[in-house]
């Protein structure tokens, strides 16, 4: 299977909602996580078993699943400022944002569990998500 086929078959296999959650979980933390969660590994395993495919190694994950699950635009990399969560003013709710443009990533909210922060961080974003973010904010 090509990467594109893997994406579309995997989406059909797990269903649209779970697929979205799977992809967004890969890209929700910055810097990006170095491994998948157990439930993600489990989904992939069920999928590869069903289609008799080779196990998908983590090193291939970003290469295969690099499309926005909402808009199907290829994801790009950027370096954005890290800001305090209290400074983020959005005109629409967090839930709506997650639904409409989950991968805008114009800024990165500060992770409160850490003591010191760099000023910027590398993120992954979808161009369409950013356009919508502009339109709604
Ligand atoms: Zn998008």
Portion of residues within helices: 40-55%
Count the strands? 3
Please state roughly what percent of the residues sit in beta strands, choosing from under 5%, 5-15%, 15-25%, 25-35%, 35-45% or over 45%: 5-15%
List SSEs in N-to-C order.
HHHHEHEEH
Poorly predicted segments: none
Widest sheet, order of strands? 2-1-3
Q: Would you kindly provide a written description of the structure presented here, covering whatever features stand out?
A:
By secondary structure, the protein is an alpha+beta fold. It folds into 2 domains: 3-64, no CATH class; 76-136, no CATH class. It has 6 helices and 3 strands. It has helices at residues 3-14, 16-26, 38-50, 58-64, 94-100, 127-136; strands at residues 76-83, 108-109, 120-125. A 3-stranded mixed sheet has the order 2-1-3. Strand 1, helix 5 (94-100) and strand 2 form a beta-alpha-beta unit. Helix 1 (3-14) packs across helix 2 (16-26). It is globular and about 50 Å long. The model has no long low-confidence stretch (mean pLDDT 91). Zinc ion (ZN) is lined by residues 68, 70-71, 73, 101, 103, 126, 128-129.
Structural descriptors:
binds zinc ion, 2 domains, alpha+beta, 44% helix, 3-stranded mixed β-sheet, single chain, 3 strands, 137 residues, 6 helices
Short overview:
The protein is an alpha+beta fold.
Write the topology of this structure.
Layout lengths: L2 H12 L1 H11 L11 H13 L7 H7 L11 E8 L10 H7 L7 E2 L10 E6 L1 H10 L1
Helix pairs in contact: 1-2
The structure holds zinc ion.
